[in-house]
């Protein structure tokens, strides 16, 4: 009887750890998506209305 309780506890702990890892992975993935979206929107904002893009030296170059 004691053996079955220990096995159940081990299974429950493993199951909980799997859920925690999946939640952590989802949070990290959401963070990466948000960072990428912000970088893309910042790149779009950096382009001015004429379609010119600023390079690293703040010079404009035609697209």
From TrEMBL:
Domain of life: Bacteria
Keywords: Membrane, Transmembrane, Transmembrane helix
Keyword Membrane: yes
Bilayer-spanning residue ranges: 16-40
Name listed for the protein in its UniProt record: Oxaloacetate decarboxylase, gamma chain
């Amino acid at each position: 009887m004691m053996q079955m309780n220990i096995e159940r506890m081990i299974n429950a702990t493993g199951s909980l750890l799997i859920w925690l890892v999946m939640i952590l992975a989802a949070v990290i993935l959401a963070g990466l998506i948000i960072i990428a979206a912000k970088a893309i929107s910042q790149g779009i904002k950096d382009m001015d209305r004429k379609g010119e893009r600023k390079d690293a030296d703040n010079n404009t170059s035609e697209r």
